[in-house]
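Thread amino acids onto this structure.
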């Protein structure tokens, strides 16, 4: 495992910690590649049922590495190829998260800005400390956060997203929760335990149902309402036909815990 990402497994939960505090866990090309390969590998591990993405240091992530980006300007194409590769790699990472079979939870202890905020918005769930702040403030540097806008505008309402993008303002954890960017606000000392509690709650569920449900959730968002219902109905039928679901419903009716072989 690269030192850029530290992995800590607790039962059926994998906790990944971005470990580059000296540059505020910037989403450099190396960090993006390491996150991608690590997440993709965990996606094949059937014993892992939930993933947490956390960070060491004061910041969750300050976004792309601006020094790395500026260095690319010295190339004959003025950095075009380097910029394109960076943003393409970042887009692939963000799009990977919803395709993973396990729910992915962001654990935010500090500032999450630009592509760091994009990472939070791309995760399935998010828990933030009271000290966390969120922004897409590239516009303050003359760089509108167009790629972070894709994830942000799908996580919060349109006008709130555009205001953040066009003014560069930061919001605190309470406002982020009100807007739907995060699910929970935790005390600083309880952030890790609260996030783990959420992950463990998910890990207790029937994994087949969670995998099917997550896939269906994102697929139906891409459809018009009628088509969404048709696709979701197909998933519900497949889910109902699982022997584990039959056991789960029987257990509920009989007021006992389900006997799931997969648990």
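Threaded sequence (263 positions):
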């Amino acid at each position: 495992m690269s030192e850029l990402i530290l992995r800590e497994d607790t039962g059926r939960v994998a906790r990944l910690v971005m470990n580059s505090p000296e540059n505020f866990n910037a989403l450099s090309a190396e960090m993006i590649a390491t996150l991608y390969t690590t997440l993709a590998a965990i996606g094949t591990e059937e014993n892992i049922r939930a993933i947490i993405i956390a960070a060491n240091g004061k910041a969750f992530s300050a976004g792309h590495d601006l020094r790395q980006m500026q260095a690319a300007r010295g190339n004959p194409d003025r950095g075009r190829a380097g910029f394109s590769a960076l943003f393409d790699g970042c887009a692939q990472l963000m799009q990977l998260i919803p395709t993973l079979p396990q729910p992915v939870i962001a654990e935010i202890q500090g500032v999450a800005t630009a592509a760091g905020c994009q990472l939070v918005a791309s995760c399935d769930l998010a828990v933030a400390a009271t000290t966390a702040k969120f922004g897409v403030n590239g516009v303050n540097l003359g760089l509108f956060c167009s790629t972070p806008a894709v994830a942000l505008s799908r996580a919060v309402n349109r006008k709130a997203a555009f205001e953040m993008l066009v003014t560069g303002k930061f919001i605190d954890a309470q406002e982020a929760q009100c807007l739907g960017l995060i699910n929970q606000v935790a005390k600083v000392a309880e952030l890790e335990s609260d996030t783990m509690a959420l992950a463990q709650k998910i890990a207790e569920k029937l994994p087949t149902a969670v995998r099917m449900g997550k896939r269906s959730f994102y697929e139906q968002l891409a459809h018009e309402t009628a088509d969404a219902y048709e696709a979701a109905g197909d998933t519900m039928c497949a889910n109902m036909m699982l022997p584990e679901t039959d056991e789960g419903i029987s257990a509920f009716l009989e007021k006992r815990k389900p006997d799931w072989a997969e648990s």
